Amino acid sequence: MLLIPCPWCGPRDEAEFHYGGQAHVAYPEDPAALSDEEWARYLFFRDNPKGLFAERWSHTAGCRRWFNAVRDTATNEIHAVYRVGEPRPVIA
Amino acid sequence: MAERRSPAAAFAARFEAASAGGGPRLAEIPFLTQIDLRVDPKSPAAERIGTAIGVPLPLEPGTAVRGGDLTVLWLGPDEWLLLGPDGAAPGLVERLTEAAAGEPVSVVDVSAQRTTLVVAGERARDVLAHGCALDLHPRVFGPGRCAQTTLARAGVVLVAGEDGFRMLVRSSFAAYVAEWLLDASLEYVTPPAGEAAPA
Ligand SMILES: [Zn+2]
C-alpha cells in the first residue's frame, strides 16, 4: 500500500485516492480545428516513462480535491505533490 | 408530521450493553443539522459568513472550530460542514444565504445524508484503530481536529473531542458501521456475570 501525501490532508492510504493519469495534458485551444488524428493523439496518447512521471490524483475519500504528484514509476516513490495550478517542481 | 426514525435507532440497546460492559461508549446522536457550505475563503462573503455564524471558517486543513452550538468542520480548501442541533437547518440556511449576498456561494442542507455516531471513552482510539489508518494519537488527532477518511472501508467524517469522537456516517452505511463498531468493541467488553465470553 502506498502512503500518498495529499497536499491538503497529509499522508493517507492509497485506497483513499483515485488515479487520474498523466498531468499537464492541456485541452486543445480550438478542438474543432483538430484533425481526427490530432484529436485521438490528445485523447489517447500518453507518456509511459520508466522513472519520474507527473500524474493526477484525486483524494476521493478525503477532501475530494485533484492534485498532481511526481512519482517514480520504477520504485513507486513519490517525489513531490503539488496543488492544481502550481508548476511542476524541478526534481534533481 | 411523519414519524422520524434515525438510521441507527435499532442499535440503541446493543450500544448501551457494549458501553455498560466496559467497552467504548457507543451511541447515536440522531438528526443533527448538517449544512454543506462552499465559498472562496478569500471572498468578502466568507468573512461575512464568519461574522453571521459567530466564528471564522477554519482555514487549516483538518481542523474544526466551535461557535455557540455550531461546529464548523474543514472539509476542503473551499468547503465546510456546519454541524448544529436538530431543527437549526432552516434558520442557519437563511443566515448563510443572507451573508452570501449574491456572491457565488453554495449552501446545501445535507442533514439527512449522514447520522452521527459517538465512539467515546478510554477504548475509543483502540476500537477505531481496528479499521482506520489515520494516526489517532491525541498528539496528532486531538480535540479540534477532524478528517474525512474511511473506517472499515466506509467513508466517514471523524471529529475528535475531549472524551472521544463523533463520527458522521452516511445513513445507508450506518447499520454496517454500527455492526462493525460492536464487533470491534467485543474484545474490550466484559460479559455480564454467568455468561460465557463470546467466542
Ligand atoms: Zn485530501
Structure commentary:
- The complex is a heterodimer of chains A (about 90) and B (about 200).
- Chain A is mainly beta.
- Chain A is built from 1 helix and 6 strands.
- Chain A is globular.
- Chain B has 2 domains: about 10-30 and about 115-190, Gyrase A, domain 2 (2-Layer Sandwich), CATH 3.30.1360.120; about 35-110, Heterotetrameric sarcosine oxidase (Alpha-Beta Plaits, 2-Layer Sandwich), CATH 3.30.70.1520.
- Chain B is about 25% helix and about 30% strand.
- Chain B has 5 helices and 10 strands.
- Chain B has helices at about 10-20, 45-55, 90-100, 125-130, 175-185; strands at about 25-30, 35-40, 65, 70-75, 80-85, 105-110, 115-120, 145-150, 155-160, 165-170.
- The termini of chain B are far apart.
- The model of chain B has no long low-confidence stretch (mean pLDDT about 95).
- The interface of A and B includes residues 61 and 63 of A.
CATH top level assignment of the largest domain in chain B = Alpha Beta
pLDDT averaged residue by residue of chain A: 96
* Assembly annotation: heterodimer
Helical/strand content category of chain A = mainly beta
Count all strands of chain A and give the number: 6
Organism (chain A): Microbispora maris
Pfam family, one (chain A): SoxD
Protein name (chain A): Sarcosine oxidase subunit delta
InterPro entries (chain A): SoxD, SoxD_sf
In short:
The complex is a heterodimer of chains A (92) and B (199). By secondary structure, chain A is mainly beta. Chain A is built from one helix and six strands.
Could you give the topology of this structure?
The complex is a heterodimer of chains A (92) and B (199).
Chain A: E1 3-6, E2 10-13, E3 18-22, H1 36-44, E4 52-58, E5 66-72, E6 78-83
Antiparallel strand pairs in A: 1-2, 3-4, 4-5, 5-6
Chain B: H1 12-20, E1 25-29, E2 33-38, H2 44-53, E3 64-67, E4 70-76, E5 79-84, H3 89-100, E6 106-109, E7 114-120, H4 124-129, E8 146-151, E9 154-160, E10 164-170, H5 174-185
Antiparallel strand pairs in B: 1-7, 2-5, 2-6, 3-4, 4-5, 7-10, 8-9, 9-10
Helix pairs in contact in B: 2-3
Bound molecules: zinc ion (ZN).
Protein name (chain A): Sarcosine oxidase subunit delta
Pfam families (chain A): SoxD (PF04267)
InterPro entries (chain A): SoxD, SoxD_sf
